[in-house]
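Hi C.,

You asked whether I'd gotten around to modeling the 140-residue construct. I have! Everything is below, sequence then structure, no commentary in between.
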Amino acid sequence: MIERASDMSRCWSYVGRRGGGQIVSLARRGCVYHQVIQHELLHALGFNHEQTRSDRDRYVRIYYQNILRGQEHNFRKINTNNLGTPYDYGSVMHYGRYAFSANRQPTIVPIPQRPMCVDRRATQMSRMDILRVKRLYGCR
């Protein structure tokens, strides 16, 4: 499953289970933080980035011209099962305003402008993150 040795030096996980097991890469440098571990484990459980939600255009504007070449996939809108939950600016799965910026300009801007919404990354799973896990896996 690992294509390059450098893949193990980053933080990443496939979205959802792949085959008989799941690889979650948590390189010691930069990955071993509470919120990063939660983020990658949520990918493994089947969750995408919040800013890729199918309804995201009502909540954020993505500035592709500001995104580092090769990182656009982190922002592409996809058909998602939002599990009947609202868009969550505070999700551990939501990138910050300058995520993967190539030019120090914002890559994600909230609609309407709400400065606190995406200025900082979440430090733990939000109530909506937890609710989504419970709904997807039928927990109470």
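If it helps when you're writing up: The longest strand covers residues 11-13.

Thanks,
B.
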